[in-house]
Request: fold
Amino acid sequence: MRSVPTRGAGRQPGSGVGVLDRSVALLAALENGARTLAEVAGRAGLPRPTAHRLLGALETHGLVRRSREGYALGPGLIRLGSAASRDLPLADAARPTLERLTGRTGESSQVYVRVGDERVCVAAVESPNELRTIVEPGVSLPMTAGSAAKVFLADADEADRERLLRSSGRSAALRTDITGVARRGWAHSAGERQAGVGSVSAPVRDGDGHLIAVVSVSGPMSRMRPADARRHARHVVAAAREIEAAIGARSG
Reply:
């Protein structure tokens, strides 16, 4: 898989179909998070009235949504992305590793990618245990709760990270946890996103060191205590390296 680092909108290649090119430019302007109308228009290089009209049309189709900050990518893109992910090398490359990871830990395993201000599951394997966590591919989860979110936050640029932390309502605790993620190379959460559920996550990077995904195991907190997390962490980190190697082999 060719990695696509999280960046600003930049200049998009033109197709010759003006309304399509302008709409894609608006979506790209929202890639790193919510923006005001003025910010979106400026980043897309469009007059405000044109941007406002096209954003309204994109909102009608669920590709853009309103947020407290202005405009953000919409849930329709998550559905489309989920459908596309079934054919992406990342999901295919990760599946055998997730099966091994679940076999080693006994817990459900997932791979997430960032989509705007959310993380989306693109591949998952369920635990064989009767009591287990279930995260379906295509499900969108917050960027401010859970171990996978901490990995994404630890890798985000400072302005993006601070914006998300402020929106979380628990920025002090998250900031402390994120510092630990950078030091250890993995993250642990307990009951943060959902009561009774814990998880361990590690970053998946491309050959240039850019974060492209996060791999996780999750399960009931009775099996995700700190000692369990430390034991699972080595398997999760190893799984991240396996996925990186598989992606490299497919793109090489």
Q: What stands out?
A: Strands lie at 64-67, 70-73, 108-115, 118-125, 140-142, 187-190, 197-205, 211-220. Confidence is low (pLDDT under 50) at residues 1-12.
